[in-house]
Amino acid sequence: xxxxxxxxxxxxxxxxxxxxxxxxxxxxxxxxxxxxxxxxxxxxxxxxxxxxxxxxxxxxxxxxxxxxxxxxxxxxxxxxxxxxxxxxxxxxxxxxxxxxxxxxxxxxxxxxxxxxxxxxxxxxxxxxxxxxxxxxxxxxxxxxxxxxxxxxxxxxxxxxxxxxxxxxxxxxxxxxxxxxxxxxxxxxxxxxxxxxxxxxxxxxxxx
Length: 207
Hints:
The protein is of the alpha+beta class. It contains 4 helices and 10 strands; from the N terminus they run βββααββαββαβββ. The protein has a 7-stranded mixed β-sheet, with helices on one face. A hairpin with a 7-residue loop joins strand 6 and strand 7.
């Protein structure tokens, strides 16, 4: 495929947890970060594309995240509190990976940011201290998942604490799984970034 590297951005997609011909790094079990042209998110880069462009994985990761941050001014929010809906080139879920977006938005939210991202092109934003907003976010997930979208992502709400995303729970677990280590394995021990751009989600504790 023909690729212009300054158009490559990180795109969240379904990830089975095993290495394929597509370059993908796990974000949460069942969801991974792929790298694709912003106007063609269904055509992610493969390992052959990396070799063709002389890129390694970490260089691709930094390049794509840099491109994403450069586009943040084109993101927009719609609706009104307690829940807002984002618009961003059909890859609204990729905004989870953009620190600058959240740095500007957090002061306006009631509590910590909580989002619904049931599909690649759906992002509903509310705050942890807004019961009405949380209810709207839950209902958004239910409606989208019921429709069985082609680009389904996360069936849970996610909460941002600091610069990390966690599965939202009204009663947080006492001990959370450590994050931020690089593991080249796949399957149950899924791969995670430890670079400064890392935005790994902490999975919900099994009880």
